[in-house]
Amino acid sequence: MRQIGKSRFLIIYASVCTLLFAGVQGTTLAQISPSPTPTPTPALAASPAPVQTLTDLQAKIRRSTFAPQLRRGRIGIKIVSLNKGTLVYEVDSEKYFIPASNMKNFTVAAALERLTPDFRFNTRVRAHSKPDAAGLIRGNMFVVGSGDISISTAFAESNYYQGLDLIAERIKAAGVKRIVGDLVADQSYFRGFKLPPTWEWDDLQGYYGAEVSALPLNDNAVDLKVFAGSVGNPCIIRILPQNNLFRIINKCMTSANAARRSITVFKWLDQNVIEVIGTIPTGQPSFDTSVSVTSPAELFVNLLKDRLQKIGVEVNGRARLMDDTDKMSVRPDLIDIANLESPPLALIVAKTMKPSQNMYTETLLWTLGERSIRAPNANTTSANLGINAVKEFLRGIGLPPDAIVQYDGSGLSRHNLVTPSAVAALYVHMAKQSNFAQAWRDSLTIGGVDGTLSRRFIGTAAAANLRGKTGTLDQVSALSGYVTTAAGEQLVVSMIVNGVAGETRQRTRVLDEIVVALANFNGRIDTP
């Protein structure tokens, strides 16, 4: 506390004494009594917020759709009450839109319904005979995949090797001490080309454009870190997990601290070759990115060989992919040496939907296909079988055959088309008719809390309220899900914006504004 000067204190003291003397002059000390405690004035009750009408809500939504940034694009909306199906608002709800990752809704829902939340992937290790008394496997050992996407850092707290170590430990526990032959990756479970044919080539180098494999590892991507070295010398580049499959072409130089960082990473198509071009100043943090892997099964089996040798299991042969010669020699009487089961599908779909993981969704689609009845044409791909399975599922819940046009599982293809009505109908079915409604709801990202919605709706009535699925491509944004109004009614909402260039935020601002209006609505939609 600041001190008051002595002279100023004396003036204040004299003034106070004068006032006190004037206030009690002519009154004895006994006659002075404390002032009665004033009765507090009751606080004015806050006026209740006026009850909104459905017409009020519809007007707010309509105003949002007239936002200037949408003037050259299109928006489709379908909003209904979950309880009675009462229509809240719709515009172009039966028209086709590119859905981006809202396509995942259909793939994941079909996978949950057909495979069930308890479904588990299985990776098997097989050989022509069990290890002998000396622990020898005489001949090749095969690692047979079925698409276990949980062998990943996403399920192992960023540990690149946890899934591989589990397999290696089980091989050792089976009594294997030495493999005289090769360690062979069998990825024959899936049929068809490793990438959806309608994906754009410039998406294929990023983690979000990773290929599908029956032996996936760490989301079929590697992490790249670029550090500054000494001024005038090349940058330092690290790839994780460390491996010998990738070749790095380092065209990045370390610059003085005042310079701007400018780095471009380019992965050659269908090759594990990465070029790093540009400059990074000293004193700046590393430049981090993730790059897709070409032939992830090859990376899987090479790293598994390393992990086996680290725990004392010798592999005399090579780590390699299965070839045509192997296919001729592999007999149905191969013996299981070890196996690894994935976590249940209920957990996997949450790891798929919340971060909007493309490769996981494609793997689910292909798995759905391989678990379906194979068509008479044996050359039918796993992806096409999966798309047919999704069609059958949608037909079973009452959607018309042309409700969606599906080219992939994840929505990265720009050939996909859906209607907002179809998305809304799917959400109604999964909440009200599905036996796995809770697993479905748990898979959805939560506004302001996690996944792709973790930074949206913070501080609004939609935070920790909206559960749904986003979708983002260049010029495309989508948002579908469940939201509870201020009056406690649950709504289903599906909104898709197409043809709006510019920053993603220009599109999502409109969608978020509508969701917040729904969450704040205090009127009634369904009549009692």
Structural class, by secondary structure, is alpha+beta
Strand order of the largest sheet: 2-1-22-21-20-19
* Tally of individual helices: 12
Q: Main sheet?
A: 6 strands, antiparallel
What are the segments in which pLDDT stays under 50 over at least 5 consecutive residues?
1-41
- What CATH architecture of the largest domain would you give? 3-Layer(aba) Sandwich
User: Would you state the CATH class of the largest domain?
Assistant: Alpha Beta
| Integer average pLDDT | 90
> Helicity, in percent?
25-40%
CATH fold category name of the largest domain: Beta-lactamase
Shape call: globular
List keywords for this structure.
single chain; 528 residues; alpha+beta; Beta-lactamase; D-tyrosyl-trna(Tyr) Deacylase, Chain: A; six-stranded antiparallel β-sheet; five-stranded mixed β-sheet; 28% helix; globular; disordered N terminus
Structural write-up:
α3 (104-115) crosses α8 and α8 crosses α9 (382-396). Residues 1-41 have low confidence and may be disordered. The chain is built from 12 helices and 22 strands. The chain folds into 3 domains: 54-117 and 346-520, DD-peptidase/beta-lactamase superfamily (Beta-lactamase, 3-Layer(aba) Sandwich); 122-195 and 296-343, D-Ala-D-Ala carboxypeptidase C, peptidase S13 (D-tyrosyl-trna(Tyr) Deacylase, Chain: A); 218-292, no CATH class. The strands form 6 sheets. Strands 2-1-22-21-20-19 form a 6-stranded antiparallel β-sheet, with helices on both faces. A 5-stranded mixed β-sheet has the order 15-7-5-3-16, with helices on one face. A 3-stranded parallel β-sheet has the order 4-6-14, with helices on one face. It has 528 residues and is α+β, with helices and mostly antiparallel strands.
